[in-house]
Specification:
The protein is of the alpha/beta class. Helices cover 24% and strands 26% of the residues. The chain contains six helices and 13 strands.
């Protein structure tokens, strides 16, 4: 793990890239930021988390770092020890994690257990949507009370690096590290309700667009060439034909622009989701 500090004093703000080694945009955005020799008003940490996986171009070496939090310093598994070390670095920080996907070209934010602090951060990121993953948050960074993630675009693309860099700067402006006003795009808020699993051995083709409504009765995918239709309306999230062996993606509900959101309504939903949370496997993020 690389931990770079800018500014003087003890940082209370952190940016974390390369939690997944096959998503290099965060590490590249951090390097671009450090190379720009930034003038900062308060200190921040820039963390390149899973260097070993990044060097090998793989998601993880022994286990998924973003399912291993809070980690274990005594574990036999590299990423479980790394998760513990990462926790020590970010535990007193407001943090932005940077990821990328195989399913969507634009940047969107991931949150869980949304609170005022997280909402203030994501409201000022240049993203097209904010997705609440509370229902499947187990062991992920977004569970932490001061942590939000972005998905910056397609894995390995130059656009993902640009999007990651823009989000990094906006986050550092919102947190007072960089001078200037961050954007205020008022992105839409989507709440994941459930994963859609694949039947083993069958071929899937996703026909819709992520973040675009699928109506009740509408065909949104094929399974071995046969139509798969929606029982209820939903908005697809991280949905792709072959991004994941087990999951097609997620259903979500759209709650309107972030600014219109009542946090108490989200809290109630999160509590209900937590009560019947399971060990669902999770697609990319
Ligand atoms: Zn990731």
């Amino acid at each position: 793990m690389q931990v770079h500090t800018v500014g003087e004093g003890t940082p209370e703000v952190a940016v974390v890239g390369a939690v997944h080694g096959d998503e290099p945009c965060g590490a590249r955005a951090i390097e671009r930021f450090l190379d720009s020799d930034p003038e900062v008003d308060r200190p921040a940490k820039l963390i390149i988390a899973n260097e070993r996986a990044l060097d090998q171009g793989v998601r993880y070496v022994e286990t998924d770092l973003n399912r291993a939090l809070p980690g274990d310093p005594e574990s036999d598994l590299y990423e479980e020890r790394l998760a513990y070390d990462l926790m020590q670095e970010v535990r007193d920080c407001v943090s932005l994690g940077i990821h990328s996907t195989v399913s969507y070209q634009d940047a969107f934010a991931n949150v869980a257990y949304l609170n005022e602090r997280k909402r203030d951060i994501v409201a000022h990121l240049p993203v097209t949507g904010v997705v609440d993953f509370t229902v499947v948050a187990d062991g992920r960074s977004v569970e932490l009370p001061g942590f939000v993630d972005i998905e910056a675009g397609y894995q390995g693309s130059a656009e993902a690096v640009d999007n990651a860099y823009d989000c990094l700067r906006a986050f550092l402006q919102t947190t007072g590290v960089l001078p200037g006003d961050p954007p205020a795009p008022d992105p839409g808020f989507y709440e994941v309700t459930e994963p859609i699993y694949k039947d083993p051995g069958k071929e899937y083709e996703f026909l819709g667009e992520n973040f675009e409504r699928v109506d009740a009765g509408e065909q949104f995918a094929t399974v071995d060439g046969a139509p798969l239709t929606a029982d209820e309306p939903f908005w697809p999230i991280l949905m792709s034909s072959d991004g994941h062996d087990v999951l097609l993606g997620y259903r979500s509900n759209y709650h309107g622009p972030l600014s219109s959101l009542s946090l108490s309504a989200v809290d109630a939903d999160a509590d209900a989701a937590n009560a019947d949370a399971t060990d669902d496997p999770v697609a990319e993020d």
